[in-house]
Amino acid sequence: MSRIPGLLTVFLIGLSACAPTGPSVTSDGVYRIRADDIADVQYRMLDSVNALRTGAGVAPVALDARLTAAAETHAQDMSRQQRAWPFGSNGSSPYDRVARSGYQGALVAEMYAQTFETELDTLAAWVDDGAWGDEILNPEATDMGFAWQQDSTGLLWWVIVLGNGDAASAAPVF
C-alpha cells in the first residue's frame, strides 16, 4: 500500500513532462499564445533575429523594454484599427511611439504584420521581403523591441522595433 503514493508521484511527474510548453496550434488550426508564453515567444524571436544577424556578420541586438512597449502599443492599436500599417489611430508615427516610450536612442526600423502565422514564420516573411530583411540585418541596430496582439479569432498583429541606443534621437523638424 505504501508503494502506491510513490508510484502515483512518479506517474504525475512523468505526466507533467507531457504538458504543452509554449504556444500551440489548437484543434481549429489556430496558433494560440497564452499569457505564460510571452517570454518564450519574445526570446525565441530575439534568438532567431540574432542568429540571422550573427550569420550575416552583424552584431546581435538586445531586447529593450522601452522598444517593446512601443511595439506593444502599436500592435494593440493596429488590432483596434484592423489595419497593419505604420501609423497609430492618433496619427502617431514609429518615431513618436519610440520617443513616448522613453527610449533615448534613435529609431532604426519598425516592421509589422497581420497574420495567423507564428512569430518565426512572420520573421521568415520579413526576411524574404527584401527591404525589411535588410532592416533586420541593419548594423546600426543595437536594441530590439518585440510584441504582438492576438485577436479572439487568433489573428496576430506582430511588431518589431529596432533602435540604436548609441545614437541620440533626432529632434523632429516642424
Overview of this protein structure:
Residues 3-20 and 170-174 have low confidence and may be disordered. The protein has one domain (33-163): Pathogenesis-related Protein p14a, CATH 3.40.33.10. Strands 3-5-6-4 form a 4-stranded mixed sheet, sandwiched between helices. A two-stranded antiparallel ribbon has the order 1-2. The chain contains 6 helices and 6 strands. Helix 3 (65-81) crosses helix 4. The chain is globular and about 45 Å long. Strand 5 and strand 6 (156-164) form a beta hairpin. It has 174 residues and is an alpha+beta fold. It starts with a helix and ends in a 10-residue tail after the last strand.
Poorly predicted sequence stretches spanning 5 or more consecutive residues:
3-20, 170-174
Q: Could you state the order of secondary-structure elements as H and E?
A: HEEHEHHEHHEE
Query: What fraction strand?
Result: 15-25%
Instruction: Kindly state the percentage of residues in helix.
Output: 40-55%
The level-1 CATH class: Alpha Beta
Count of beta strands: 6
Strands in their spatial order, largest beta sheet: 3-5-6-4
**Count of domains:** 1
Rg, Cα atoms, Å: 19 Å
Largest sheet: 4 strands, mixed
Arithmetic mean pLDDT? 85
Terminus-to-terminus distance: 81 Å
Number of helices: 6
Please give the CATH architecture. Answer: 3-Layer(aba) Sandwich
Which fold name fills CATH's third level, the topology?
Pathogenesis-related Protein p14a
Structural class: alpha+beta
The CATH superfamily appears as CAP
- Give the overall silhouette: globular
